[in-house]
Specification:
The chain has three domains: 66 residues, Uridine Diphospho-n-acetylenolpyruvylglucosamine Reductase, domain 2 (2-Layer Sandwich); 154 residues, Uridine Diphospho-n-acetylenolpyruvylglucosamine Reductase, domain 3 (2-Layer Sandwich), CATH 3.30.465; 104 residues, Alpha-Beta Complex (Uridine Diphospho-n-acetylenolpyruvylglucosamine Reductase, domain 1). The protein has eight helices and 20 strands. It has a five-stranded antiparallel beta sheet. A four-stranded mixed beta sheet has the order 1-2-5-3, covered by helices on one side. A hairpin with a 5-residue loop joins β10 and β11. α4 packs across α5. The radius of gyration is 21 Å and the shape is globular. The structure holds flavin-adenine dinucleotide. The site of flavin-adenine dinucleotide has 33 residues, from β3, β8, β12 and β13.
Length: 339
């Protein structure tokens, strides 16, 4: 494994921001990874782990060591005639992993088709889409403790999964690196989830009444391709903000002024679609310099000209946060990791 100097990260982040790492290493196994971590420790360099670069915004060059995780491999262990444990190493591409599971007729991940990024990052923010989150099938993950260089295991409860959240974004952030993730999937009698979003409509269009897990995946892919910009063509990191959850009482007050506000009550809290709030503030499709809010989905910030700096994208997101706060009194939180 080579540690390279002044390495461009432009092709390694889906925003396509032109920044570089002072040092860069691509690791293919745990020994490489330990070596790279030791190198950083000896030289007192900050470490940044990189998967597919689809949930990160670099606002400046990175002055330490970027470690790109390229550990590969998938293994299976049948539990009984209905269930299988499937383990994938951190560097496996998420969508290719989902497609592998579908090719083996393993059910549970089909609604998460076409989410960019790698398997090793999926627990970080408990990736989710179309009524499913990885916590629904997650069993455990192996991590390397950066301090001790020992391998440890986290089960589902220990991961503290929440909406786009986990212990890896909080308490143990920067203390460990995820090496592999294990999911429990069905081998037959799959639970088909079509009630969320436009999946049912999409299947109706195709004349499919009794969808298979493969049909659900195709429907999800088709919907995503029609709604979300392809980062290969237009730099972006998907949803830039989380959907805010506010107390019921605050919601009732705001709703008096905006009765048409979409909302998803959950006990004493109410979730509001961030995209709607941003759109109401006039941001949908709006461009400032090299950056814009996407014309089909206000929640997605795009590198419109391909020449945006991370700082410009960050400042654009701050303008959105401020105008949503001014108009609705609701704070937006960035989903994307800022570096
Ligand atoms: C077009 C588009 C659509 C998207 N749609 C969705 C969606 O529907 N649902 C959803 O949840 N997300 C979505 N995302 C966001 C993104 O795909 C996910 O967050 C994904 O899990 C990021 O994976 P990555 O490997 O690219 O992470 P990276 O961007 O490489 O890393 C993200 C963060 O995790 C850290 N990290 C990376 N790997 C590890 C590891 N192995 N151990 C510890 N830390 C690590 C990094 O340091 C960084 O802080 C979308 C993004 C895009 C571009």
């Amino acid at each position: 494994m080579k540690i390279q100097e002044k390495y461009s990260l432009k092709n390694l982040n889906t925003f396509g921001v032109d920044v570089s790492a002072k040092y860069f290493a691509e690791v293919k196994d745990v020994d490489d990874l330990k070596y790279a971590i030791e190198f950083a420790k000896i030289n007192h360099f900050e470490i940044l782990f990189l998967g597919g670069g689809s949930n990160i915004l670099f606002t400046e060059d990175f002055g330490g060591l970027v470690i790109k995780l390229n550990l590969k491999g998938i293994s299976e262990e049948f539990l009984n005639e209905n269930e299988v444990l499937v383990t994938a190493k951190a560097g496996e591409n998420w969508h290719e992993f989902v497609q592998f599971c579908l090719s083996e007729n393993y059910g549970g991940l089909e609604n998460l088709s076409l989410i960019p990024g790698n398997v090793g990052t999926s627990p970080m923010q408990n990736i989710g889409a179309y009524g499913t989150e990885i916590k629904d099938t997650f069993v455990k993950c192996k991590v390397l403790n950066i301090q001790t260089l020992e391998i440890e295991e986290f089960n589902k409860e220990e991961c503290g999964f929440g909406y786009r959240d986990s212990i890896f974004k909080g308490e143990v952030r920067g203390k460990c690196v995820i090496l592999e993730v294990t999911f429990k999937l069905s081998t037959k009698n799959h639970q088909i989830k079509t009630e969320y979003g436009a999946i049912k409509n999409e299947l109706d269009k195709l004349g499919i009444e009794n969808p298979t897990i493969q049909d659900v995946s195709r429907a999800v892919i088709s919907i995503r391709q029609s709604k979300l910009p392809d980062p290969q063509i237009l730099g972006n990191a998907g949803s830039f903000f989380k959907n805010p959850t506010i107390p019921l009482q605050q919601f009732t007050e705001v709703q008096n002024s905006y009765p048409q506000m979409p909302n998803y009550p959950n006990g004493e809290m109410v979730k509001i679609p961030a995209g709607w709030l941003i759109e109401q503030c006039g941001w949908k499709g709006k461009q400032v310099g090299n950056v814009a809010s996407h014309e089909l989905q206000a929640l997605v910030i795009v590198n419109k000209t391909g020449n945006a700096t991370g700082k410009e994208i960050y400042d654009f997101s701050t303008m959105i946060i401020e105008s949503v706060k001014d108009k609705f009194g609701i704070g937006l939180e960035r989903e994307v990791n800022i570096v």
